[in-house]
Each structure stands twice: as structure tokens, then as C-alpha cells.
Specification:
2 domains, two-stranded antiparallel sheet, 4 strands, 5 helices, 7% strand
């Protein structure tokens, strides 16, 4: 007998959460814009906070509309936004990515990228670790040459790049 996947979040709950979160972002943008002045100077045009304030205002209005729509949409409470199986799949990709982003500050973008590619090839692609490490190292080396040597664009580096003189 197949087991039923557990519903974690409804569509209505997610709509309400996103509407509230975006409304809060809009309030922060508008509040900070007031600090910068939201006026219009006759000889100069808009002040620094003018456009951010109105973008925040439009975002707040849109969020309020979405909040009201979600609040009164009772049918959305019965529809599933995400199940336990689906969130596990999302987290299987998101958590290594979050680790990659955190590692950038400590080991640099090239080593972190090589490890990230190797991990994904091994875990999701079911390739042997040696192939993942090889592909990750080659891609990181090509990116290093492209950005650091050819385009002269410095990217975050870690201790290995510093040992190599970069």
C-alpha cells in the first residue's frame, strides 16, 4: 500500500507569508527613502529617495492586494504548496549551495567551485569521486585562467591561490 506524502505547507499559507514578507521589505525601503528625502528639487529633479520610495510604495500596495486575495481564498488552504518529499529534494540542493556560499569567504571561489562540482557529480550524477574531482578541478582552472589571467577580474581567493601568488 503506497504511503501518502505529508503536506507541509498550503498554497494559502505560502501566499500569506510571501505577501507579509514583501510588505515588510517595502516598509523598510520606504522608511529608508524618507531618510534620503523623497522630494523633487525644482532645478535638480528627484532627490535620492524619490524613486526607491515610490517603488517601495508600489510593492507595499501590491503586497496588500496579494495579502487580501490570499486571506479570502479559502480554497487555497486545501491545495498543497510543498510536501515532505519535495522539500527534501529542494533542501538536497539548497544546503550544499548554502555551504558553497559560506565556503567562498574561507577557501575562495575556485576551490569552493571545484568541490561543489565534484560533490554534485558524485551525489546527484552518481559519477565516481575521481571523475567529479577531475571535472571540478578542470573547470575551476579554466575559470581561474579566464577571470584572473585573461580578463584581469579578481574574484574571491583563498589560501591556495595566495600560495600560488594570486
Amino acid at each position: 500500500m503506497p504511503t501518502k506524502d505529508v503536506k507541509l505547507v498550503s498554497v494559502r499559507a505560502m501566499d500569506l507569508g510571501v505577501a507579509v514578507a514583501l510588505f515588510l521589505v517595502a516598509v523598510v525601503v520606504m522608511t529608508d527613502s524618507l531618510r534620503l528625502d523623497v522630494g523633487w528639487r525644482e532645478s535638480e529633479g528627484p532627490t535620492a529617495g524619490y524613486f526607491p520610495f515610490y517603488i517601495g510604495l508600489f510593492l507595499a500596495v501590491a503586497s496588500g492586494i496579494n495579502l487580501g486575495r490570499a486571506w479570502f481564498d479559502r480554497a487555497a488552504a486545501t491545495r498543497t504548496f510543498v510536501t515532505r518529499t519535495a522539500i527534501r529534494r529542494v533542501l538536497a540542493v539548497f544546503l550544499p549551495f548554502a555551504g558553497y556560499v559560506l565556503a567562498l569567504g574561507f577557501i575562495g571561489i575556485y576551490v569552493a567551485s571545484a568541490l561543489y562540482i565534484a560533490l554534485f557529480m558524485w551525489w546527484f550524477g552518481r559519477y565516481p569521486p575521481s571523475r567529479g574531482i577531475t571535472v571540478g578541478a578542470v573547470i575551476a582552472a579554466v575559470l581561474f585562467l579566464m577571470f584572473e589571467v585573461w580578463f584581469l577580474v579578481p574574484l574571491p581567493k583563498g589560501p591556495i591561490e595566495h600560495l600560488l601568488g594570486y
